[in-house]
Amino acid sequence: MNILDVESLSVKYGQVSAVSEMSFHVCPGELVSLIGANGAGKSSLLRCVMGAVPAASGDVHFCGKSLGRTPVEDRVRLGMYLVPEKRSLFNSMSVRDNLQLGIYANRGRINFADEVKRIYSLFPILEERQEQLAGTLSGGQQQMVAIGRALIARPRLLLLDEPSIGLAPLVVQQIMEVIVDLQRKEGLTVILVEQNARLALNAANRAYLIELGRIIKAGTGAELAADPHLSDIYLGVKRMAA
């Protein structure tokens, strides 16, 4: 059974269509990348899947259950967790206190002391900064906190919205290595929305190319990376004419 089925999903802001009858699925343990230009509808799709914006039509099924108008907090309890583009940390709280917020999705079922050790092993810099206010961290460290908070919730499906945006390449590499390692070794299921197509396709089991709110191509990460149209436009690869 698929962990996620998105069926003919549409999202509108007033009269503006952001997502148009989009359908796709995610299998347990996959890393699925959604790529496309800025404004293609990727983030709107993730927010709708998470319940943060309503669907104009269509439905989302999680582990075989129709979510309908299930609110965000209930989707979190079911095992979905979105790390938004803007990270949404509490800047006046410490790193450790921000991380602790992740336990509330599974209150009583998670030992925070054990989980925070796990996060510090993934992102050692956070242990050094654990008493520092989140608002004083670098962008990369803030992203680590946001992802760490999500991982403490032990999600069945992790939704990542543009995790590389504004970050130095070495930091991006470190964060992506952690995510890919968790997916491959622990079976973490991930949907990655990413404008950096090369990064997203290298990490993906499967990928979807989105343009103007619609899926126009689907395949493995390698298949999409080898597609001439996608390579020219999204990967910056110019192929020599025969």
Question: Any chance you could write out the topology, listing elements then pairs?
Answer:
Layout: E1 4-13, E2 16-26, E3 31-35, H1 42-50, E4 57-62, E5 65-66, H2 72-78, E6 80-83, H3 95-100, H4 112-122, H5 124-128, H6 139-152, E7 157-161, H7 169-186, E8 189-193, H8 197-203, E9 206-211, E10 214-220, H9 221-225, H10 228-234
Parallel strand pairs: 3-8, 3-9, 6-7, 7-8
Antiparallel strand pairs: 1-2, 1-4, 4-5, 9-10
InterPro entries: AAA+_ATPase (IPR003593), ABC_transporter-like_ATP-bd (IPR003439), ABC_transporter-like_CS (IPR017871), BCAA_Transport_ATP-bd_LivF (IPR052156), P-loop_NTPase (IPR027417)
Domain ABC transporter: 4-237
GO molecular function: ATP binding; ATP hydrolysis activity; branched-chain amino acid transmembrane transporter activity
In short:
This protein is of the alpha/beta class and 242 residues long.
What do these coordinates show?
The longest helix has 18 residues. 37% of the residues lie in helices and 25% in strands. Helix 4 packs antiparallel against helix 6. The protein is built from ten helices and ten strands. It folds into two domains: 164 residues, Rossmann fold (3-Layer(aba) Sandwich), CATH 3.40.50.300; 70 residues, no CATH class. The strands form two sheets. A six-stranded mixed sheet has the order 6-7-8-3-9-10, with helices on both faces. A four-stranded antiparallel sheet has the order 2-1-4-5, covered by helices on one side. It is α/β, with parallel strands linked by helices and 242 residues long.
